[in-house]
Specification:
single chain; about 700 residues; six-stranded mixed beta sheet; five-stranded antiparallel beta sheet; binds zinc ion
Length: about 700
């Protein structure tokens, strides 16, 4: 049975689809163009019609048509599936247990709600532009500095000071009272005599300036209303509806989407007017987080567009609990990347302290590789003059605003100030407390050089010895939930036992070798199966199935693998998406979750889940250490295959560029090839280490 994914891929051409958004030109058998995901002058974005894949050798993004659509449009897998299915004229049938009839009905209702919102928007907008009653609203917008262009592009509206104006209009358009209430545009009137509902409906928004709120694809999902008279509350947003989910709404996200990707930054402000004014003055990468503090759902949407989040905080709230909550939420929701950190020889404090790494000499450069988990995001803070909102700053002093946006304060600098504001740093207790609060923060810094800089800064700040702070930092890092794996050169006992037979110490383990052929006589179960997989199915996707199967069965293996592989290392559309889901489920679960994994999987991928589980059916008897090794080996193998493939692609492209005497491309591609070779070497030595 061909899956719907395969059917779609067979019908939609990668080059055609990408060609809609990227100007592609022929380059040998490939096509190339300027990458839509990073800024570049020389094209390093290639589309391979033969394999129906694409790759950017500048920013390392790549994959199939699904990966492109998801990334380019910021869509979830399921949304991309629906989008592409429509293009391919392939009906998407629900393959899961969900009731198809109910799904169809729900989707029809959502469509109807969208239409309702559109109609309401047009009405509000016309009111604002033309009605006498809206004079106050127009004056208010003008007073706040909103230009008439912005009024049109944001489709600002006005809800008149009447009880039934909008309801009356919409009922006349054929909507029912129930639909108006469901859509959050009207409330049910209480019948005073009977003391129950049923006395008709009245408008939800009255005498308010209306800000239509759209989703990332530009569809109206709800409204925000600013009171113009004495109405309370000052800001009123649509109630929770089928379309409007309060704590995930980002105002202006539809208009900011492209700018965010281009600027590699999103600026988060708090008010509607702040966002409108920011856009009006050219800071189009701005969204407003309205009605609630920053939540995980906000960040989930944003992280598909950028890794740099700039918080333009309310100056009064700086350092407040809400701000801190937002920052923590952002840190928690961004992906973790696990980076291999070679511990410098002779400076391995941990090694000296507990001596658990055994026989390896401290001077050996390959002694230990530690995997550290770090937040894959840059979160920083835009500091505004005291007491001023962004819209005021922008209009009073645009250059300062633009400078602040381009040079936001790193979160860590912000923390240095905020977290020590209440401490007396001359006293020993104050110093100790400062270290206690700041070390975990410093530990989150990705860049080791930067990290050392901040260690120095902290040491100076509290006049402490840098080396003892470093030791303290190591302790903090270990006690945090950093899933670090130590690859020591001493093979763990368990593994030696499960290997069954003695093996030659220095031979390359045969699971490394590309063709799966054995080079030594070692015959661990894994190796036998590895070759069986290769020989019998002759399909490298089998390896992806096998690994995903292991991960589904043992979620705890996740941190051991996520440092080695990222989404784009997967060749299968379905396995890539499952890997993505596994990672996000694992990261989100602060406490172990009892919910079955299937619950997080779109119904279209349930068959894949069943397939991968079948792949590991016989694995239940393995113990923890054996499983970890198995998973790490499998991931390493996949990574290696991927790197070799990249290498082949590069060699080909370099040849092509050479024939075309395209010097700029040759240089760029060769540089990338060097990196790939370096990565391959590192991978090989890591495999020798724990092989
Ligand atoms: Zn790129």
């Amino acid at each position: 049975m061909t899956s719907i994914i395969e059917t779609i891929k067979a019908k939609v051409d990668v080059a055609e689809e990408i060609g809609l958004v990227v100007a592609l030109q022929k380059s040998g058998k490939a096509l190339k163009g300027l990458c839509p995901f990073h800024n570049e002058r020389t094209a390093s974005f290639y589309v391979f019609a033969e394999s129906q894949t694409w790759r950017c050798f500048g920013c390392n993004e790549g994959g199939d048509i699904f990966a492109f659509v998801q990334k380019q449009q910021g869509l979830e897998f399921r949304e991309a599936l629906y989008y592409l299915a429509e293009k391919a004229s392939v009906p998407v049938e629900d393959q899961g247990s969900r009731d198809p009839e109910a799904e169809r009905e729900a989707s029809a209702t959502r469509e109807r709600m969208r239409k309702l919102n559109e109609d309401a928007l047009l009405w509000f907008h016309q009111m604002f532009l033309r009605s006498q009653e809206a004079a106050g609203a127009r004056a208010y917008a003008k007073k706040r500095g909103i230009s008439s262009d912005s009024v049109l592009s944001f489709a600002l509206g006005y809800a008149p000071d009447q009880w039934e104006a909008l309801s009356h209009y919409l009922l006349g358009q054929g909507y029912s009272e129930r639909e108006l209430v469901m859509g959050g545009l009207a409330r049910e009137r209480m019948d005073d005599q009977k003391g129950e509902y049923g006395g008709g409906v009245y408008d939800y928004f009255r005498d308010r300036l209306i800000f239509p709120i759209r989703d990332i694809r530009g569809r109206v999902i709800g409204f925000g209303g600013r009171a113009l008279g004495e109405g309370k509350p000052k800001y009123l947003n649509s109630p929770q509806t089928l379309l409007f989910e309060k704590n995930s709404v980002l105002y202006a996200i539809d208009m900011a989407r492209d700018a965010i990707k281009q600027a590699h930054q999103v600026v988060i402000v708090e008010g509607y007017v702040d966002a409108v004014i920011a856009h009006q003055y050219g800071t189009k990468q701005t969204v407003a987080c309205i009605g609630s503090a920053i939540t995980e759902k906000h960040i989930q949407q944003l992280k598909k567009l950028t890794r740099q989040v700039t918080l333009a905080l309310d100056p009064d709230a700086a350092g407040s609990a809400a701000t801190e909550h937002g920052i923590q939420e952002a840190l928690r929701t961004f992906d973790r990347i696990v980076v291999p950190v070679p511990l410098p020889s002779g400076r391995t404090e941990g090694q000296k302290r507990n001596g658990q790494y055994g026989s390896r000499k401290a001077s050996d450069p390959h002694g230990i590789i530690r995997l550290e988990e770090q937040v894959d995001a840059e979160i920083n803070v835009l500091k505004l003059p005291d007491g001023e909102d962004p819209d005021e700053v922008i209009q009073r002093d645009l250059p300062s605003w633009l400078y602040a946006v381009a040079h936001p304060q790193p979160l860590i600098d912000y923390y240095f100030v905020v977290k020590t504001a209440d401490l007396d740093l001359r006293e020993p207790e104050g110093k100790a407390e400062a270290a206690k609060r700041l070390l975990p923060v410093i530990g989150m810094i990705n860049d080791r050089i930067k990290r050392d800089d901040y260690m120095r800064k902290l040491a100076t700040m509290i006049r402490s010895d840098e080396r003892s702070l470093h030791e303290e930092l190591q302790r903090v890092l270990r006690s945090q939930k950093t899933q670090s794996v130590e690859f020591s050169n001493t093979r763990p006992k368990v593994l030696r036992e499960t290997a069954g037979q003695p093996r030659q110490e220095d031979a390359e383990p045969d699971w490394i070798s590309d063709n799966g052929e054995s080079s030594t006589g070692s015959q661990s179960a894994a190796q036998t199966r590895a070759r069986a997989l290769d020989r019998n199915r002759g399909n490298k996707l089998q390896w992806e199935d096998y690994l995903i199967g292991l991960l589904v069965q043992n979620p705890g293996l996740n941190p051991h693998v996520c440092g080695i592989l990222n989404d784009s290392d997967f060749a299968g559309t379905d396995t890539r998406e499952l890997y993505h889901i596994l990672n996000s489920v694992y990261q989100r679960a602060s406490s172990p979750s009892n919910q079955p994994f299937e619950q997080f999987v779109p119904s279209e991928l349930l068959t894949t889940v069943a397939r991968v589980q079948k792949c590991v059916e016989s694995e239940t008897s393995r113990d923890g250490a054996g499983l970890v090794k198995e998973a790490v080996q499998c991931a390493t193998r996949l990574k290696r295959t991927r790197l070799l493939q990249l290498n082949t692609e590069l060699s080909y492209l370099i040849r092509e560029a050479d024939q075309a005497s395209d010097k700029a491309s040759i240089g760029q591609l060769q540089l990338r090839q060097l990196e790939i070779c370096q990565q391959l070497r590192t991978l090989n030595s890591a495999m020798h280490l724990h092989g």
